[in-house]
Amino acid sequence: MARTRLTASERTEQLAAAAVRAFAATGYVGTSTDDVARLAGVSQPYVIRLFGSKQRLFIAAIEHATDRIEQEFREAAAQQADLSALGNAYDRLLARHDLPVLLLHGFAASNDPAIGAVVRERFGRIYRMVRELTGTDPDAATTFLGHGMLLTVLAAMQAVGPGGVPREPWAAEIVKAEPAGVDDRG
């Protein structure tokens, strides 16, 4: 059987997805470009040729993860344009343990000026998208994102298991709590 060669765009996407998994597992400092290359099944020089540096690779992983959030939010809003639909879409994303952990690593690495600029820009895009897709006001959007950040932390520290099932009684209270002032977050 002949092997199908990936296009440069497909290979870049494959490496960004591998970078999400690798950086989620060991963080920005603890992950090497060689770790990502091994996970993707390519050589480390190839990774450097495509991305130029570990910093740029990490940024690509953050962009890949936030693109996924934006895509899920757009798809959810196409069916039902309210905070409840977006919240349900984000709950599904949190089931992928690597996504919330990578986001937290991105926030932690934001003291690096280049990384911080991208993380802030991407978070701002998501905030604006939530407002635009749902027509919600700034207070409700802020509450929604704050609740989402709390759920991200819970998922990253594995206080919730597969399917969002809380592992601790205190986590169950948090997961079931409705964000104050957000009527349509089901």
Automatic annotation (TrEMBL):
Residues 32-51 bind DNA. It comes from the Bacteria. GO terms for molecular function: DNA-binding transcription factor activity; transcription cis-regulatory region binding. Signal peptide: none annotated. It holds the Pfam family TetR_N. Keywords: DNA-binding. InterPro entries: Homeodomain-like_sf, HTH-type_TetR-like_transc_reg, HTH_TetR. This is Transcriptional regulator, TetR family. It comes from Micromonospora krabiensis.
